[in-house]
Every structure is written in C-alpha cells, then in structure tokens.
C-alpha cells in the first residue's frame, strides 16, 4: 500500500486516506487556505486532517454575533465529536436539578388537580356539615353558618393558590427545556445529514478517482500490448 505526504503537515499517510484539495469543499478549502496560503487544489491532505477542519467548520457555522457557541450548540458539538446521543443526556437530566420545594410543589399541584382530592374534600365538607347540623345539634363546635369551616377553606385556598402558580411556573420551565432539547436534537440531525452528504460525496469522488486510475492502468497495458504486437 502506497503513502503520500500531506501538503499542510508534511506527514506521510496511507494512500487510502488521501483527499485532494479540489474535493474538500469551498468553505473548508478557504479555511485551510487561511492557515496555509500555499495550499492549492492540486495538493492533498489526510482524511484525519480533513475531519478536524470539517468539525471546525461546523462550529463556525453555529457561531453567534458574540462569536461564542451557546450551551445547547456546544452540547450538540460535543455529542457529535464523542459519538453520543442527545436523548441520553436529556433522560439523564430529567428532574436532576429539582429542589425539595419544587418537588413538593409538583406533588401538591398534582394531587390538588385530581379527582381524588375533589372527592375527598367533598366528603370532608359533607361530614363536617352533617356532624355539626345533625349529630351535635346544640353542642356543635362550628354551628351554622360554619365560620370555622370558612376559615379553614380560606386558609387552604390562600396556601394552594401560590403552590399551583409555582407548579405552573415549573411546567413552563419544563416546556422550555423540552423545546430546547428538541432544538438540539433537530440541530444535531441537520449537522449529521450534512456530514453524511459530505462523506457520500467523498466516497463517490474516491471511487471516481479509483476508476480513473484503473482506466489509466488498463490503457497503459493496452499500449504495451499494442507495442509488443507491432514489434513481433
């Protein structure tokens, strides 16, 4: 197996890793040209070097006006470089940073908005009223119009309202996190599709170059055979 020397690093690599400058793409070629002004379309680099410039090109595509990657985009780039999936990170972070108060608020809001709470509370009201009206009669601890019961209901409503609002804010945060995760997954899918197109184009170009080399060898053999036949 033959080797070639990279035009940018001067190192030798296997011939199978050879990528010509005319095949790296315009944007990546310009990036290489900035670092190595003498680099030409007829020069060759290794697939490993091309991969490094390709990753750098993907990062550049995601740069904002402040010239920094956002946390979500950096997560996507790390996932691409490490070969991991975004969904693993999403599942692992679900509820990981919730505080004790946030978990309590979620549980209270979940129970307060269920039929279990409604039926239980209706049962409590019925028992309270029947106890004070029918069973205790004149000795009731909360006679009609049930002032103590109204006080209890007011206290529950006063405490339940901010807890429900807290839970709603938590739900909005979760929705924003899900939207951010969907954005990261879609962004990674788009980048992987672009990389896949580049790899397919690279493979096609390699096959075409291999076919051209085979044709040249066949033509050379035919010319030798023709020369031998003429000499005979």
TrEMBL record:
Q: Which residues form a coiled coil?
A: 205-232
Q: State which residue ranges cross the membrane.
A: 117-137, 143-166
Q: Known Pfam families for this protein?
A: DUF1003
Alphabetical keyword list = Coiled coil, Membrane, Transmembrane, Transmembrane helix
Does this UniProt record's set of keywords contain Transmembrane? yes
Name it: DUF1003 domain-containing protein
């Amino acid at each position: 197996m033959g080797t070639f020397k990279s035009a940018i690093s001067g190192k030798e690599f296997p011939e199978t890793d050879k990528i010509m400058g005319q095949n790296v793409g315009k944007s990546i070629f310009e990036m290489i040209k900035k670092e190595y002004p003498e680099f030409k379309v007829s020069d060759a680099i290794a697939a490993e070097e091309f991969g490094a410039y390709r990753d750098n090109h993907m990062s550049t595509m995601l740069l904002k006006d402040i010239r920094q990657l956002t946390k979500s985009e950096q997560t996507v780039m790390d996932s691409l470089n490490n070969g991991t999936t975004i969904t693993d990170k999403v599942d692992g972070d679900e509820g990981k940073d919730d505080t004790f108060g946030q978990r309590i608020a979620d549980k209270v809001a979940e129970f307060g908005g269920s039929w279990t709470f409604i039926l239980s509370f209706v049962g409590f009201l019925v028992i309270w009223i029947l106890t004070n009206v029918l069973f205790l009669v004149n000795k009731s601890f909360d006679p009609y119009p049930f002032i103590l019961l109204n006080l209890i209901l007011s206290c529950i409503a006063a405490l339940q309202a901010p807890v429900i609002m807290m839970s709603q804010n938590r739900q909005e945060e979760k929705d924003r996190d899900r939207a951010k995760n969907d954005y990261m997954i879609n962004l990674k899918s788009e980048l992987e599709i672009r990389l896949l197109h580049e790899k397919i184009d690279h493979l096609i170009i390699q096959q075409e170059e291999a076919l051209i080399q085979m044709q040249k060898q066949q033509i050379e053999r035919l010319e030798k055979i023709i020369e031998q036949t003429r000499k005979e």
